[in-house]
Amino acid sequence: MASSKNGPIRETPEYRDAQSDPRFISWLKMQDAAIELEFIVSDVPELKPHLYTREGIVIAESAALERFPGWREAFNSDNLTLAMRFVYFIGETIRRHTGGQWVALPQLPPKSGAIQAIDAPFRSGFYVPTELLQVALAQRTGDKIVRVFDHALRAEQEWVDAGRPART
């Protein structure tokens, strides 16, 4: 989703509008509060000492595999709230370690709404935590998300070492 038929996605009016969408802003605020109030208190308490760390990613992936038999079950109406807390935790951990920011990626019609993603300054594409959780739950190896996290850290360091060149 790095570009659209109109050029790079970041330059489209739909992308710019999606960043100020009240639903996106509310989702971010709600998830941030839910991490502190529920996720590390009752959902995944073992995360508390590892909040937004590599070890936290490992624990979160393991906890998601224990709680959800597959990605469809994770994102059904009964589990969606908890699944989105995992999504936020994964994305926020990546964001904090890469200097990225949360963005809303507009979906192509006929779908509406936006997909939450992390826009890292060294990457032309986006980190999409929902997709990371889906892949982890589908493949069930226990290391899918942490491998992406480790790669993101290496890519960010290479970008820093190269003098932080502009994204191409």
Describe the structure in your own words:
The protein is mainly alpha-helical. The protein has one domain (8-161). The protein is built from seven helices and four strands; from the N terminus they run ββαααααββαα. It has helices spanning 13-19, 22-43, 54-67, 71-74, 80-98, 129-139, 144-161, and strands spanning 3-4, 7-8, 101-106, 114-119. The protein has a two-stranded antiparallel sheet. The protein has a two-stranded antiparallel ribbon with strand order 3-4. The longest helix is centred in the N-terminal third of the chain and has 22 residues, at 22-43. The protein is globular and about 40 Å long.
Secondary structure blueprint with pairings:
Blueprint: E1 3-4, E2 7-8, H1 13-19, H2 22-43, H3 54-67, H4 71-74, H5 80-98, E3 101-106, E4 114-119, H6 129-139, H7 144-161
Antiparallel strand pairs: 1-2, 3-4
Helix pairs in contact: 2-5, 3-5, 3-7, 5-6, 5-7
